[in-house]
Amino acid sequence: MYNSIKKRVSSKGKQGIYALLMLLLCGSKVLGQTDSIQLNTVVVKGFSPQKYMAGLKIQKLDSSLLAQYRFQNVMDLLSTQTPLAFRDYGPGQLSTVSFRGTSSNHTAVLWNGLNINSPSLGQTDFSTIPVASFEELTVQYGSAASIIGSDAVGGSLLLNSNPTLKNTNITVGHKQGSFYNNSSQLSANYDLKISPKWQLYGKTVFYQSAMFNKYPYQERKRVALLPSETFQKGFVQDITLKSKGNQVINAHIWITDNKLTLTPDELQGRELTKTTAYRTLVNYKLGDFSARTAWIRDVIDYGKGDYSDLDHAVIDKFSNRMEYEFRKNITSKSFVNFHVGGEHNHYRASLVNYVDPIVTENRLDAFLLSRFQINSRITTSFNFRKAVITKYSPPITPSFGTNFVLVQNQNYQLNIRGNISRSYRVPTLNERYWNELGNPDIKPEFGWNKEIGIEDSYAIANNQKLQTSFSFYHNRIHDWTYWNPAKSYHVENLQQVLAQGVEGTIGWQQNAEMWQLGIQAAYSYTHTVQEKAYDSYSSEVVGKQLMYVPKHQFNLNGFVQFQQTALRIYYQGISKRFTKADNSRYLDGYNTINLKLSTKFNFNSVGLELQGQINNVLDTFYLNVRNFAMPGRNYSLSLLAILPFKKD
What we know:
Structural class: mainly beta
Number of helices: 6
Number of strands: 35
Strand content: over 45%
Shape: globular
Low-confidence stretches: 1-44
């Protein structure tokens, strides 16, 4: 079964289900919401890992930016707003990320603090995560294993739910695009007083999409476009119960269903990959103590031809976590935060291609996190984590970081930061238990990440602001796990890899009474190579850039807004990427431009948002994966209606 699943789920796409929904209505006469982007948040935070990430680069994408991408997935958003490199097979197909030259297995994806990477594959398909499924998105660069745990070697993506207060409304929307692709959404935000002591805040979301990919051409420059159909659907339910005392209960449900068919019109050659994920989480917080329990089930069905004999895989993850956080004041201007806790994860996998039909595994983590606010200018953090896994034990994982405000006055602020941390990655279930190709004695990866950064912000006259940021990093990873083609893809700890580089951004913005203008440029240089030769195969690739990692990447985003109407332009330049380990073959670099035009207006009491988008304006020919061209110029139009309602 899963040999094909691994290659397809880890090499082509998966996903989900066609949608349609609607147009709209008018509500009773209530006060309209003039700006649906601004969210008045409920201050009921759980564990915030960013608090203990001193010295690391943290990029939080604001709610107004998320609103622009509400009908798109996380890859669409991050590819224009960050220096991350994506390996994308096309609309609705597999999309994986490379943080700072590491692999897709080196990125932790946390949903409300819970790692949702596939236990079998060790990664997340970003095409299956719609922006509409969460309210907060933070990108953390570099190793944070001492805080987050396994997988956080190259970086982490933190998705958080946060139901809104006072913005009680119902939203309904539809997007229609080229190639008969479309998506729809229906959501509600609400808050209710359910007793004299308890208040409920909630959000309910339904979403669907269908990507038929009916291209008017079968190839571009003699390179085929892979025919495919993808259907996606999902349900999100977030509830927060807050008492007048110190008690908070958070409950989250996220169900996704994704169905991908390759070459759907060829009965004998078509391939189906259907993935369903059930994610549930409940967190209880009393003062500084919190406890969390969660269950995730990943179901994968794979088949070819007439689908008469589908391979079926089910993987369950049961997670429990307890933690305590407290603060100690040292002086009137200095204090220390400590966060101590433990987490237990139990895995149960049923796959026919494993050594045993049922595989179970336990993983236990204990951690101590600390943050020292020495004074108004200096913040440091010391963190430690120890993991114990069935049959072996990863190394102790410490980290140390500091932020220092070098200059601070009314118009200017200059910060410098630095961090050194040890990382580790627990081998996936496939790497340990796959029949014949797996290795039960595979070692966990470990490494050291070092980085330093400088950031400044300058307030100019006439409501203008100029910001710059530069980061330099050095990340050496030992026992890099590798499915060795020289040994029929048997998994081994084959490589010692060094990823190093620099990232820089500069942005300017001006806010006038009716106008807003802004531009931001970002550049990243990534040099990732294997450092040591372990056999005759690896000797010829030592010192060569790793496959599919671009050395140079440049993003330029600009916008102009007049009242509620905005025009945005997104430029991206990617250098060549090698497709063979010895760098003898490569994909050419490319440049793309996307445009968005959006406006907001009211119709009676209903707020409306209309957005038009042109992707690949220059009709650029490019490939993200060898032998599969990406589509040319395409268009989309979306309409979202916001129906606010009064509370009793």
